[in-house]
């Protein structure tokens, strides 16, 4: 790599936290940030499926307690700074529309809590540390569901749409503190969450037909987008939605 590219994309000396960093897209982002030189803490409800050398881990549920705030404080104190927060943790409850209104609302509420309120909670814990570091960035992982209607999961669509707009609001509020806030909006990335549709030939073909690049993405393809948004290369980029979806949201006929 040339010195120019090194300066443009290096995260050396930066400290980053990735929620949902023990599985799927979050784990790929943690690995990518580590590979770009950042010191990374991956937090999740479960132990990592495959631990990454150089990445630290903390177990907590960002929805229910102050464990994330404590982990954030400890990590920032250990490294003397926090520069990057990636909110990749999330849940989905398929077929949440049922004939039982109580069950439907419970699923809706749980989905909003995991995908929207918890993200704001994590941002609130991290922002003071980002300010003390003189600025930094927040990257929220939304979805193509943030701009498109998908069936049988209204809570997920509403939460991701809300997160998309929360990102833009925070980008405006934090710009004066030199904190950039952006979204990565994945399409169908092959993870445990999408494995059922990937393994179903009919559903797989149906989804791929909607893409310009007709295949499911791989988690590392989202990791590269995170490195870009966290790096000096994106120093003039805030409030955007970066779609990593094989062209799904741009495709017409």
Would you kindly provide a brief summary of this structure?
The chain has 253 residues and is of the alpha/beta class.
Structure report:
With about 250 residues, the chain is α/β, with parallel strands linked by helices. It has eight helices and seven strands, in the order αβαββαβαβαβαααβ. It has a seven-stranded parallel beta sheet with strand order 3-2-1-4-5-6-7, with helices on both faces. β5 (about 135-140), α5 (about 155-175) and β6 form a beta-alpha-beta unit. α2 crosses α8 (about 220-230), α3 (about 65-80) runs parallel beside α4 (about 100-130) and α4 (about 100-130) packs parallel to α5 (about 155-175). The radius of gyration is 18 Å and the shape is globular. It starts with a helix and ends in a 9-residue tail after the last strand. About 45% of the residues are buried.
Radius of gyration: 18 Å
N-to-C order of helices and strands: HEHEEHEHEHEHHHE
How helical, in percent, are the residues? 40-55%
Biggest sheet statistics: 7 strands, parallel
Give the overall shape.
globular
Query: What do the pLDDT scores average to?
Result: 94
Strands of the largest sheet, in order across it?
3-2-1-4-5-6-7
Tell me the total number of β-strands. Answer: 7
How many DSSP H or I helices?
8
Distance separating the two termini: 40 Å
SS content category: alpha/beta
Low-confidence stretches: none
Strand content: 15-25%
